[in-house]
Amino acid sequence: MAVQTGFSLIQIFSPTWEIFCLLFFLVGLGQISNYVAAFVLGSEILGDSVRIKYSTLGVCLFYAFGYIALPAFAYFIRDWKMLLLAIALPGLLYVPLWWFVPESPRWLLSQGRVQEAETIIRKAAKQNGITPPDVIFEQEELEDIKDKTEQTHNILDLVKTRNIRCITIMSLLVWMIITIGYFGLSLNTPNLHGDAYLNCFLSAVVEVPAYIASWLLLQYCPRRFSLSGILFLAGVVLLVIQLLPPDLNILSICMVMIGKFGVTAAFSMVYVYSSELYPTVVRNMGVGVCSMASRLGSIISPYFVFLGQYDEYLPYILMGSLTVLSGILTIFLPESFGIPLPDTIDQMQMVKGVKYKPSNTGKQKHKGRQEDEDEDEMVLKKTAF
User: Given this model, what pLDDT does residue 261 score?
Assistant: First the structure.
C-alpha cells in the first residue's frame, strides 16, 4: 500500500511522459502486490464461515465501489494531476491497519514460529469472547510442524510433482484468459455506443451483482462447476454478439454487460478457488504466480481491443472463444468445496482425468492419509479466527 500510494503521489510531479510511465509501472506493482497479499492473508486468517464473504463481498465488492467512483471522479475532475491526487489520497487511510491486522497463524506455523501463532490465536479468542485451552498445540503437533518447517520451499515447488504441475499450468491459463476478457471488456467501453463516461460507469456497476452472485455460488455450490458454468455463460454471450442486428445498439450493450458480468464473477471466484487449491507452504507463491499470468493477460487485452479497428466483432469472437476454453480447462481442476485448506503439497487434491503411477512412498502416504487428515483438520480449526 505504501508503494502504491507513495508513487501515485510522486506521479503527479512527473516532468516527462517516460517518467510518468515508469512511476505508473511501480504503482501497478504495488497495487497488485497489495491486492494479492491482502487476499491471501484474509484467506488464511479467517475461518470457513467468513473466508468466502471476505474474498467476495469484502475484497471484490469494495473493489467494485472504487471502480464505480472512478468514472465519477474523472467526469468532474478533468485535470489529470488533480485526478491522480484524488484517487491517491484515500490510500493514506490504510496506514493504521499495520498496527491492527495480525499476521497469518498458518504462515507462522509453516515457518516454525509457533509461539507467535499461539499469541495471535489467544488474542483472537479473547476478542471473540472464547476461552482458549491451556495447551493449543500438542507436542505431537509441534513435532509434526517442526518436521514440515525443515523443508524449504521455493517457486520450483509449483511444478515439483505431476499433480501440482498440472494445477499450476491450468491455473495460469485460466487466470490469463479471464483477465484478457475482464480488461478487454473494460477497456472496450469507450468504443461502445453512447457516452464513454456512462458506459464505464455501467461496466463498473455490473460488477456489484457479479460479486454477489460469485459469493452465493462459492457459498453453496461446488467450485469447479460454478466457475466453469459462469465462464461458459460469458463466452457464449460474447460469441452471440456478432449475430445481433447492427441497429440494436442497446441490446448489444446489454449483451456486453452480461458478458462482463460473467467474466467479473469468474475473476472473483478464481482467486478463492486458487487459494484453496494451493497448500499453505506455497499458497502465496501460487496465487502470486497466477496473478503474474493474469498481468500478462492485462498486457495482451489492449491489443484485442485494437483488433476492433479491423472488425467490430473480432474482439468479442476471440474473447468469447478463449473464455469457453477456460471453462473447459476448469472442469479438470480438483474440487475444493467443503475441504479444509491443505498445508503441505502432499495434502493437495488430485487433478481430474489424469492417471498417476502408484509408488511405494505414495502407498505409504495413502495408508496414513486418514490419520493425517484428522490431525491436520484439528490444526486448521485452531488457526482460524
Answer: 94
